[in-house]
Amino acid sequence: MNLKAAAIALMLLFAAYASADYYEDRLKETKGYLTDIKKRLDEERKQIDKIESTKKTVALKVNNLNETLDVQSKMIDQLNKESAELRKDIQTLDKETSRLNSEIAKIRDSIETSNIYLIDNIEYVNIKLLLFTKESRDTIKNMEIVENINTILMKRAEDIKTKSERLEAVKTEKETKSRDIEHLLRMKQRLVDEYNTEKVKLNQLVAVMEQDKESKREYIKILNKKQQDFEKKMDRIRAQVEDARKKEKAEEGDATLFGRLKGKMDWPIKGEIIEFFGPKKVEGFQGTIQNKGIKISPSGHGDVRTVFEGTVKYVDNIRGFGNLVIVGHPGAYFTLYANMSRVNVQTGNSVAAGQAIGSVAVDLQPETPYLYFEIRKHNEALNPSEWLKPVRR
Known about the structure:
Layout: H1 3-16, H2 20-114, E1 117-119, E2 125-127, H3 136-250, H4 252-259, E3 271-275, E4 278-281, E5 288-291, E6 294-298, E7 303-305, E8 310-318, E9 322-329, E10 333-340, E11 342-343, E12 350-351, E13 356-359, E14 371-377, E15 380-382
Antiparallel strand pairs: 1-2, 3-6, 4-5, 6-14, 7-13, 8-9, 8-12, 9-10, 10-14, 11-13, 14-15
Helix pairs in contact: 2-3, 3-4
């Protein structure tokens, strides 16, 4: 562990033995997180409600579209049926017209067969019936017969023509109606296609909203879990606040005793301060670093003693600090002793004021031996020089 990491570790360690005020700050911070989570939960639930409301609106639109499509489909079926009937009627009329035209042609052939037309050179038609009979009365009689036949045939041809014209008129009417129906069918089909396209879009929108809703539900589950975790954390912090308050109240008297030692505290080791508290200029570094404690070079033996009674909170060997002991005192005071060659205590031991907890190797060569010493209130570093007894020269 480097020096920076060690310093961070010590800060976390002191924070672990924080005051009720520290826990109150943590409680306030946690409440802020919890409020934010609740706000996000409310927003997500509102979004889900909005999605549900929109889905209902879309479902109503889809239902209306389905009803409209059903009506339009029935109309298209009816129009198709009418169109088919018209096409069938037109085919029947075509057949009947064709039959009548054929009949007219036959009548014309009959007339042409029974008569001979002679055309002279004075540009008018002189129709003569050449009947080769023995008697003139037979000729007259035959002429009358031919005339009657021609009259009947011409009358029938006129009747057929009139009927054919009526059929053509009916056919034209039906064709017009058929075209109108076909046009209407195309319009209806385009409308149905548009309705179906709109229906597909609405169904796709519902599917997207459903996915969004599921995503939000999953997110709400996560937020609910976080909310539960933070509520449990708040319960723990409240308990820590309560414990810290009780402990501070119980230690108020002892804390006052520790506070009264300012300027009167026995030195943790006999010696001379070689590095003081506060800003320190480091060679090769443009800025300064902040010393949180002091370095004491021992004179005589290297025994390290506690400055006040308390409980050993931490014992370890940290690179940059060497063997290190932190002692907790009443009122959230802490003293730190580091760079020891030997340690005599373990975490959890109760120690008395002036009790030897370790030693510094005074015969260390070629380096200068020293004890690194800190005093802290909560996590705030205090200047040990202001607490130790003045040295009499």
